[in-house]
């Protein structure tokens, strides 16, 4: 839902969205499989998800600060 809303708004500004490259997708897939190879418990998977979410929040916060002139509507959807 957030992706669709922001993608629509960005296209309305005649801008193009950036997509995750194939290498990033593949390395993420491999890391998840390696991390769950030995320990497939729900607590370990939950920990991985929390760490990933936290890293994502930190990354998006940094990127928002990199673009102080970004469209305020799009920023508000993300927050």
Automatic annotation (TrEMBL):
Organism: Clostridium beijerinckii
Protein name listed in UniProt: Uncharacterized protein
């Amino acid at each position: 839902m957030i992706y669709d809303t922001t993608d629509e708004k960005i296209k309305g500004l005649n801008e193009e969205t950036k997509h995750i490259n194939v290498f990033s997708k593949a390395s993420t897939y491999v890391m998840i499989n390696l991390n769950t190879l030995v320990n497939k418990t729900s607590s370990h998977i939950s920990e991985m998800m929390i760490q990933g979410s936290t890293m994502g929040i930190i990354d998006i916060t940094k990127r928002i600060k990199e673009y102080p002139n970004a469209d305020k509507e799009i920023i508000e959807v993300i927050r």
